[in-house]
Amino acid sequence: MVLKLFRGAAPEVAETKASAAAPVISFHGSGRVAWSPRDTASLTRSGFAGNPVGFRCVKMIAEAAAALPLIVQDAERRYDVHPLVGLLAKPNPGQGRAALFESFFGQLLLTGDGYLEAAGEALDGGPQELYVLRSDRMSVVPGSDGWPVAYEYAVGAKKHRFDMRAELAPICHVKSFHPQDDHYGLSALQAAAAALDVHTSASRWSKALLDNAARPSGAIIYKGSDGQGSLGTDQYDRLVDELETHHQGARNAGRPMLLEGGLDWKPMGFSPSDMEFQKTKESAAREIALAFGVPPMLLGLPGDNSYANYQEANRAFYRLTVLPLVSKVMAAVSGWLGGLYGPELTVAADLDHIPALSAERDAQWKRVSSASFLSDAEKRQMLGLPKLVDDA
């Protein structure tokens, strides 16, 4: 009723006032920061495809996580031959295990969400193939209780609906923690968006300086016979054309300038603000690496002394970034597929075959094996090994 009343009223004509300073303000700019769009497609394009630091962070984490050796075991034994082992080794005709999980981890890092599809049904009751679906094309269909009852995958005008109420859920959805969203995760690109903008802007500024377009490296001063002369229109145009043709761009760097009578060259150095741009760019790069959990030392970024050496930084990278990510994903895969092949079947990373953690594992094996108060079964359990057949 209130809306109808307002709609029926005659609109008032807003009073317009003009300020004498308005044209100057409009020309100078509003002074507000111009941020790039924060949607998934724009962030992926600018933060991954268009930024070397974001690209390298995602590639390092995804490739390292996908390359970890996996083990399939239950409480009784570790399997070398098993339907799930075969499925993970060759998930579909076009991809192997490493390629599949690299794509999956990449989607999870870029968007905060990763989706695995189980296609077909094998004779053993499990899926025939596994595929990674693009996160930007997937949408959650929540039920009355808020939990997903289906997922919709849209490509252009075509949509496919995955019903999650089937005996084998066709989709495994792994998402990063998001404090303000119940159905979608928060990506590292979102957290690093401001640093990505700063880094990209600093790169463009540096490129502009190289092209002699952002700030002149000096000034040409014309002095007439009385010291107050000015160039004519034709003289000015000819001088500008001469500078643009023969003295701008990287190919003309260091080329000497020939000045006619009355012209004087006054060199200009970089201002303190120009000199700070490189430091700003390096600081933004470290913030991007921080958001992804990659030690800046591994990216070759200067000014980072958090770790004593490269080996220590690499160990921290695996321990604090790669392993938690792989453990989370494999726990989801185990809960999704493990029940189809038997109780307590799990998929996990094989920590004993990760070169970066070899020193830690050697120390742990030595410490556990020397504990005489522990039985063999307890030692195997502490090391993540299944029971011996005699102990079962």
Structure explained in plain terms:
With 392 residues, the chain is α+β, with helices and mostly antiparallel strands. Helices cover 43% and strands 14% of the residues. The chain contains 13 helices and eleven strands. It is elongated and about 100 Å long. The N terminus is likely disordered.
Would you summarize the structure shown here?
This protein is of the alpha+beta class. Helices cover 43% and strands 14% of the residues. It has helices at 2-8, 22-28, 40-49, 52-67, 83-89, 97-111, 188-191, 193-210, 233-246, 272-292, 310-341, 358-369, 376-382; strands at 70-73, 78-79, 113-119, 129-133, 138-142, 148-155, 158-163, 171-175, 218-222, 263-267, 346-349.
How much of the sequence lies in strands comes to 5-15%
Task: Count the E strands.
Answer: 11
Separation, N- and C-terminal Cα atoms: 75 Å
The total of helices stands at 13
- Characterize the quaternary organization of these chains: single chain
Query: Which ranges are low-confidence, i.e. pLDDT below 50, for 5 or more consecutive residues?
Result: 1-9, 21-31
Mean pLDDT: 80
**H-E string:** HHHHEEHHEEEEEEHHEHEHHEHH
Q: How does the helix and strand content classify structurally?
A: alpha+beta
> What's the main sheet like?
3 strands, antiparallel
Q: Rg from C-alpha positions? A: 31 Å
Helix content: 40-55%
Give the overall silhouette: elongated
